[in-house]
Inverse folding.
């Protein structure tokens, strides 16, 4: 299939432009991510004039638009027509664009113009007026509204003339990878995939670790987490998922610790295992989906107990958010439907009726030391499985 000879996608870059000295590096990562995500679509990314364009085969639009909707670091994108830099050609493309808008029920419009190439015979204002009039002459059903138009047709005169309307919002944020690598503690719940998504949007490559208690947890529960990592991976250029069997660790805790403390101690063991993996793979931080006081294990005291087993920074992007806001993001990013599938998590299986609500870190540490589970955790880490979810760039 051949590329469209007169249309492409225009990518808009926002926050990146604010980053001064870093800009070159940020843009390089953005280009690398875009190219890696577009692989297999037949589309190509071209940067000219400080603008990013994607030229795509005509039958690839759905795949390309899917990528652009999952690409951190762009504020928006639009399908743009392009033509030679001649006034008649530009007017003809504005009319064609307006005809499409009219067919979609648009009644009012305005033209905005930017003339980067000062050799073009009309200045921005002249171009707006001329193109606007051409549209009105050709399509009398349309009206100009300069204050609140239903659609804006933008004309940019660069090395070619570009004409577009209806820019779609991008994810914004920073290109994934500009902040290094983080390891996400990924359960099968609603929160942790959202936490991973938010940190990816601040520039972290995300890999994940999941703890299960097979055969007490099912294979479906494992598949569900793999599916979540796959969805997350669409935004992060793939996710490597470390799958760790925590059955032996949990059994040990259940046998040797007071029942009220089992959840806190399990969390501490998870942190220790996650930290071990992170250090071996060079992840710079851990990420969890905790939200303050959402459940018993997430009081500030219990979070302190959990965190006492980590020395790397533990990022908790949901800490101040309520469940409704978190759920809204889960729906938007496409993880919600999978998260609510009814498979058990290993924490729930062994959770006590009356968990400690405000564990003292000294007491928690004393119980933890008594368990003597260092070797057990090490073995679980050694024997972990790895899954590559979505397209992994490394
Ligand atoms: P989630 O919706 O992410 O499961 P939650 O509200 O159920 O969160 P908890 O079960 O207390 O809360 O878990 C808090 C955090 O601990 C999770 O967000 C996740 O980062 C981590 N976590 C919990 N269980 C697991 C697990 N089985 N494997 C890996 N990480 C886990
Ligand atoms: Mg959970």
């Amino acid at each position: 299939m051949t590329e469209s000879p007169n249309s492409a996608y225009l990518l808009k870059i926002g926050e990146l432009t604010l980053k001064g000295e870093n800009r070159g590096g940020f843009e390089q990562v953005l280009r690398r991510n875009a190219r890696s995500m577009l692989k297999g679509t037949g589309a190509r990314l071209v940067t000219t004039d400080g603008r990013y364009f994607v030229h795509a085969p005509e039958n690839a639009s759905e795949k390309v638009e899917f990528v652009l909707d999952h690409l951190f670091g762009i504020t928006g994108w639009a399908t743009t027509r392009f033509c030679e830099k001649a006034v008649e050609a530009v007017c003809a493309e504005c009319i064609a664009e307006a005809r499409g808008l009219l067919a979609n029920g648009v009644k009012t419009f305005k033209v905005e113009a930017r003339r980067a190439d000062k050799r073009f015979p009309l200045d921005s204002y002249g171009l707006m007026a001329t193109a606007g009039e051409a549209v009105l002459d050709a399509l009398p059903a349309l009206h100009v509204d300069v204050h609140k138009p239903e659609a804006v047709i933008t004309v940019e005169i660069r090395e070619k003339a570009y004409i577009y309307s209806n820019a779609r919002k991008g994810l914004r944020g920073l290109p994934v990878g500009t902040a290094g690598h983080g390891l996400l503690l990924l359960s099968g719940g609603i929160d942790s995939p959202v936490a991973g998504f938010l940190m990816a949007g601040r520039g972290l490559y995300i890999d994940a670790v999941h703890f299960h208690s097979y055969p007490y947890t099912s294979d479906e529960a494992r598949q569900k987490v793999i599916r979540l990592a796959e969805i997350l991976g669409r935004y992060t250029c793939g996710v490597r998922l470390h799958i760790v069997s925590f059955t032996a660790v949990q059994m040990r805790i259940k046998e040797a610790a007071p029942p009220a403390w089992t959840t806190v101690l399990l969390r501490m063991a998870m942190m220790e295992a996650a930290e071990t993996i992170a250090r071996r793979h060079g992840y710079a931080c851990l990420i969890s989906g905790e939200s303050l006081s959402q459940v018993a294990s997430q009081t500030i005291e219990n979070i302190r107990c959990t965190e006492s087993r980590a020395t790397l920074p533990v990022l908790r992007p949901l800490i101040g958010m309520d469940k409704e806001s978190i759920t809204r993001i889960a729906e938007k990013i496409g993880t919600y439907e999978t998260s609510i599938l009814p498979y058990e998590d290993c924490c729930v299986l062994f959770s006590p009726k009356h968990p400690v609500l405000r564990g003292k870190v000294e007491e928690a540490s004393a119980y933890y030391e008594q368990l003597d589970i260092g070797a057990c955790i090490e073995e679980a880490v050694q024997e972990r499985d790895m899954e590559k979810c979505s397209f992994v760039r490394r």
The mean pLDDT is 92.
